[in-house]
TetR/AcrR family transcriptional regulator
Amino acid sequence: MVTGRPRGVDDAVILRTTAEVVGRVGPAGLTLAVVAREVGMVPATLVQRFGSKRGLLLALAEQSAKDAGALFGRTRSEHEPALEALVTLTVESMAPMASPEMYANHLAFLCIDLTDPQFHQHALAVHQAQGQAVENLLAEAVSAGALRAGTDVVALARSVQAATAGTGLMWALDRQGTLAQRLRQGIDTALSPHLQPPDGSTLEKP
């Protein structure tokens, strides 16, 4: 007797596939049948595990919140300079939105996050985890002398997050360059007034 695949497919694989499908068709276009077909199981098995399409998307939102912290840990361990790690963290966190169409589809998911309380708590957790990671990296950069002493890292972290969100939207509209290129430029612009001059001097205001 040949055994089926369903029990051998981890939830993590299902959720990764769900995220990929959301990127292609958006949350409205996602169906359990499409996800089930791509992971090699029947829709009824997804219903048993997640209850419904909403349950599957909630599980994806919850996993995204967990992944946000893990991404920071991995990025920090792989990149020594804090500001380099900051750029990598930002670019990797936006990697699923590699095309304007994918950006639009994930933006549609964000609209659910903003209007549905259960989804919102997970989206807020992602936002807070990313904000804390950015603050930590900026604080490290101050300690290392890459940023000026006395830099308000909390305010600067908010500026970096705002620049990230705004850059993504502008790129999806004007479609100039790649998202990664534009994000790097946006972060450089946000950080430039706070960078320590190479000679360690303090620039005086005119």
The two ends are 83 Å apart (CA to CA). The chain is about 75% helix and 0% strand.
